[in-house]
Amino acid sequence: MRYTSALAGVIILENANLYHLLYQRFSAHLQATCLELPDGTSCSYAELDAWSAGMAQVLAQLGATEGDRVMMQVGKSPAAVALYLACLRGGFVLVPLNTAYTSAELAYFIADASPAVVVCDPPREPDITRLVPPGVTVACLGPGECDLAALGRAAAGDAPVCPRADHDLAAILYTSGTTGRSKGAMLSHGNLASNASTLHALWGFQPGDVLLHALPIFHVHGLFVALNTAMLNASRIIFLEKFTTQAVLASLPKATVMMGVPTFYTRLLASADFSRLHFDHMRLFISGSAPLTEQTFRQFELRTGMRILERYGMTETGMITSNPLEGERVAGTVGFALPAVDVRVCDEHGGLRAPGDVGVVEVRGPNVFRGYWKMPDKTAQEFRPGGWFITGDLGQLDGEGRLSIVGRAKDLIISGGFNVYPKEIELCLDALGEIAESAVIGVPHPDLGEAVVAVCVATSQAPPEPERVLQELEGQLAAFKRPKALVFIEELPRNAMGKVQKNQLREAHSQLFGGA
Ligand code: MCA
Ligand code: AMP
Fold first, then answer.
1. Which residues contact residue 68 at a Cβ distance below 8 angstroms, ignoring those fewer than 6 apart?
2. What is the pLDDT of residues 275-288, one digit of tens each?
3. CATH of 413-508, one of 3.30.2350.10, 3.30.300.30, 3.30.450.20, 3.40.50.300
4. For residue 87, how far is its CA from the centre of ligand 1 (angstroms)?
5. How buried is 123 (Cβ within 10 angstroms: 0-12 exposed, 13-18 middle, 19+ buried)?
6. pTM for this one?
7. Which H or E run includes 111?
8. Looking at ligand 1, which residue's alpha carbon is closest to its atom 41?
9. Distance between CA atoms of 427 and 473, rounded to whole angstroms?
10. Which of 25, 341, 390, 316 is nearest to 198 (CA)?
């Protein structure tokens, strides 16, 4: 099966700026609430429109020109959404960063992306000011030397939307790499617009839909999949600072659609309070970013009578496949290729695998990114002729075109929806004097899906205290990357080629957190 091309949402606009498309869709509802916060405050589409115009103008005054990078490491707030929109409409390239990143991690991103402006929350201003090279402006969303939120409000107006072509960059999102070095995925206005329009249609967004938004807004899921589809619909967005079971339960009665990572669903199921009041009226629960186990899918159906709609995507591609809105949502599968997106399963040389056979998932279409920032060789390695991007995920297509993700060819751990590349952690561990070598693996975790575990060999007979080693990683690695357990063994298992056998380690430690 293929989704019909009528849903492909071919967009022909005189200005391919994504903001132009969003504005066309929400401008008839400017007085409607866009963001609703738990404290009862809200921000209308009109306010966001004017605020983003003001912020775009201030960013230009601070020295940002079209195509310049504007980096943001900020918590979730209406001002952060206004900043995202300001970057779109001003033609600046947004570089959002995980708020958990330490200064050591930030230094790399700043050097690599060479932003014109770095925007942070006030408490981080002194640190970031020390990190940026001369000529780069540091601004805050809140009180500080340069309060972009306040200046943007003061300058609010109706600044024109910068003309952009389909291929012009809208954002660079960093994804870690198997070498330990993060790569900036370059996403164009066309990439984001096509994916958002397709999902908006495919998931049947309709007047009156209210989105419950509890995801972070520094990744594709919370920033583009959730915000863009809701804004295309001029929907109200219940905007939670982060996921907590309590806050989500309090907001669900007012929502019709929720998007989340599998951990959201396992946490809801673990709550005795999750009841009819929270789901009877819901139109759609969507899951992605990590595998949704068949167990969670089934338990959720038993409890609510609803099947979670699972979809599959990547930073580099946005969304690739989705289970259907109408029709069978099958546990353990991620559905069919989106309209206008092609998916195939290949061997390591790009040869097509037969239906039912496992291979590497490859994808092409208007959603596929424009390459890695300043890494042309790396980009070339990840594409095959004809524009096929090699995802590094292992999958299987059935005769109808339904895809199942069965594993990963890349050494990647997904913990609570956040990606952790073992190499980066191993490099940090190996640099500590007391560790001779290490292997970082993901093991089943009932809450996070997978938990990061470090298996290490000590340099001396008496291994150091794991707690102390973990403490040493603070300041170097964001908390979500730091191992949840550290185990010392005498020797790492290796094959005849000398390669560490991580499968053996994963098996040996699979029960560390009680199994799946
Ligand atoms: C927080 N911690 C974590 C995680 N989150 N550790 C491992 N994995 C995590 N995901 C750290 C905290 O910093 C804290 O460290 C300790 O673990 C306990 O945190 P806890 O309170 O349990 O976590 P939380 O704050 O409740 O967060 C869990 C979460 C959150 C709600 C699942 O991680 C989350 O919102 N994840 C969503 C990620 C996401 O949006 N992914 C989309 C990527 P300490 O104790 O040291 O302070 S985009 C993508 O993947 C593609 C494109 C796609 O397909 O969508
Ligand atoms: P990211 O680099 O954050 O974009 O993460 C993308 C990766 O998340 C993909 O390559 C997959 O390995 C994984 N992923 C996303 N959605 C799913 C899903 N529904 N099932 C299994 N894996 C997923």
1. 92, 93, 115, 116, 117
2. 999 999 999 999 99
3. 3.30.300.30
4. 26
5. exposed
6. 0.95
7. helix 103-113
8. 417
9. 11
10. 341
